[in-house]
Amino acid sequence: MPQPRRQIKLGAFLMATGHHVAAWRHPEAQADAGINIAHYRRLVETAEKARFDLVFVADSPAGWPRAKEPEAQQRSSQGAHFEPLTLWSALSQVTSHIGFVATASTTYEDPYLLARRFASLDHLSGGRAAWNVVTTGADVSHNFSIAGYPAHADRYARAEEFVDLVLDLWDSHEDGAFPRDKDSGIFVDLDKVHLLNHKGAHFSVRGPLNVPRPVQGHPVVVQAGASEPGRRLAARTAEMIFTANQTLEDARAFYADVKGRLAAHGRRPEDLLIAPGIFPVLGGTEAEARRNHEEIQNLIHPAIAWEILRRHYQGRDLSGYSLDDKAPPLPEGTELNKSRLTLVSDLVARGNLTLRQLYLAVAGARGHREVVGTPEQVADAMQEWFQGGAADAFNIMPPVLPGGLDDFVAEVVPILRRRGLFREEYEGPTLRENLGLARPENRFAARRRVSAAE
Amino acid sequence: MSQRQLHLNLFIYPGGHHEAGWRYKGSDPQRVLDIGYYQDLARKAEAAKFDALFLADGPALADNIRYASRFRLEPLTTITALAAATGRIGLIATASTTYSEPYNLARLFASVDHISGGRVGWNIVTTGAAQAAQNFGLDAHPVHADRYGRAHEFLEVVTKLWDSWQDEALVIDPDSGIFADDARIHPIDHAGPHFRVRGPLNIPRSPQGRPVYVQAGSSEDGRHFAALHAEAIFTAHQTLASAQEFYADIKARARGVGRDPDHIKVLPGISPYIGSTTAEAQALHDEFNALTQPAYSLDVLKRMTGLDLTGHDLDAPFPRHLVAPDPDRAEASRFKLVLDIVDREKPTIRQLLHRIAGARGHWVSVGTPEKIADDIQTWFENGAADGFNVMPPWLHGGFDAFVEHVLPILRRRGLFRDEYRGRTLRDHFGLPRPGSLYDHAERRSA
Q1: What is d(CA A132, CA A140) in angstroms, rounded to the nearest whole number?
Q2: Do the chains contact at B103 and A207, CB–CB below 8 Å?
Q3: Cβ-count burial of A218 within 10 angstroms (0-12 exposed, 13-18 middle, 19+ buried)?
Q4: ipTM of the complex
Q5: Residues of chain A contacting residue B104, judged by C-beta atoms under 8 Å apart
Q6: What CATH number was assigned to the domain covering residues A9-283+369-453?
Q7: CATH of domain B7-274+362-445
Q8: Distance, in angstroms, between A238 CA and closest chain B CA?
Q9: What does the pLDDT look like over A331-374, one tens digit per residue?
């Protein structure tokens, strides 16, 4: 029997008004998108109609980083949006197949509460929930009564323990733990309910969870950090990585590195999907696409431009520079988002950029790959990475919403289908089925099976 | 219709409120994790013009899970899903001040208030269940007074966060490039004994300004807290006299702190067993009690009184002398309530177990639809209640019976609305929409 053809998995990464920093000013944007449920509903319905695997939202438990300049502060549309778990809970009720990836922080959340909410979303959606695990690459400790921002290494140490704990909580009831037998009066089979009695460096949690095992066994675990500790965590626990790569060479190296780490954990390459972000700026011709790109780049107010630059230079005084000066080297170390610093540093080094070119390069996709061109060119770019050992999936990052998603669905998706690279129909009703990921065995049942075999 | 009207919430317990409700022939325990089961209930309650749905919660699984339906979906995600399936009814979710982070909780509720168009209430609890502590890195459950100390500060923090965006803060003017008016978005810079939170929140002010503040503890600390903060109180009373005392006390305390007593709605629980005759209703109640399992019921009693009566003759009088006075019992107001039943009715152990099995100490009303409507009217018109949390013994049938048989009587008597008159939960409850704490600050600086 021939192997089923490998196909691209598609996520729609939804960011309120769109990914471009000035998107909200674009004539085609829904400017109040962050708190407009009808807007999100429309986007999710569009993605489901196109048979996307999933919709994805980023998150940070804080408002926008307080800009030094009120001029920049008041011009930013970031930091005014729905909370992801509630947003997806609502939209799970008006859809039937698309998966919902919500970002949540291991640094600022509590494992028991987080495990419950995601388990609940998985039940509410009939098995379509996924958790994008982040350690939060911005210092928002000021909102959480803790003394100072935990260092990168400490965040990842906590994340390792946090993720294991959540996976155990999701498994604290085995499948079939609930006979709910009216005659005998037995609601629960106690042999299938497990205490954790976890005591670790960061948490002590007794369990069990008070929500039964999720429909998918557990929600799909997504991870979005590409630093060394991030890769280690992903290789052990993640089922999908959302990553930012600028060049095919870098993306290939990342893909090979992460896939190569799996065997050490007894995992197969297909157990972890690699999903780079892609920011498509479309036009009927290449020239038109460039004009569209220019149009939105021109909407960036200078106050916002300088704010972006200050953030990348970690507060360094840039007042002696003009936008047409050559960009100085970026600072060497950070406790914030390490992999993104490396990526932008490489960009500066590679391109010999001016400060203007630098902010224009990151204003759209914040370091993700930008493809400006015709629908064929965008499809080509995706195919090249997909077949070139650099990607299993893509997170599509429309510059402006809703139009950017509508255009991608209308113009690029049909090309991918014609080339046999993307599904016509969903494989099943759960996110795991569509991503081709196995339903995990219950950890407690597995341990019992092992000890019985000994 | 200017006559004072009842407020009615449907309090949903997954398997029904009777501890053996899930075993009753009309119940559907296989569906307790199916969101469709709750959507159907929500739509029925909305068609009946109920003020709100009410979901209890605790961040731990009870130990006594074998014989009863103790699992539930997480309330915030659930009410958001129900918001998508309804258009008018209020949605009240319970969340703990002891085991939540104020910033995270403030976001969740503000988000649901936006998604639902202003229909959310927060039932503020300090969490009575000691098991919860062990899910949050604590060796012991914080004592009652400490929990309330934290709760007061928690309320202060989340109120500031909800107010941190003034109503007019969103400008959204693409031409000038001004998205939000920075002068109307305020860091809260809170620093107290329990919390240090800078803010602002990352979501604009919600349709109701703040969710409706609901509260559900009736201890001394709970009453004090409610008088200061609550806009609706869910409370348990067995007798008219007890409910009247509570009602008068809360309204007096509210006046004492300078609040309009009409802006705190007192809503006792009522669990109705409805029959076309008194005998039929009694038989229904008996049928439920016959389904109880003593191993479970004794455990519930132990949680309320601290007394483990396993092995005692269930038909012997309840051994009142064995109850140790304990001011810090986990469910303080419920402890007193159970002892009042004992002192008043001198029940056997089994009789007491049955009294509690119906609704964990809430008022059980057994009778014809007229009798139940009379009971409701009596409490409503005699200074004991502004409305009720209706607690069906089983689902959905226990709620269907109330809607079909009792509600029309209340409507005929002019006691309950025929139609919604507003869109938000504040509208349904007749509560004002609060301004932002920062309105004044902004005016001053301008």
Answers
A1: 18
A2: no
A3: buried
A4: 0.92
A5: 61, 108-109, 113
A6: 3.20.20.30
A7: 3.20.20.30
A8: 24
A9: 887 777 777 778 888 888 887 889 999 999 888 888 899 999 99
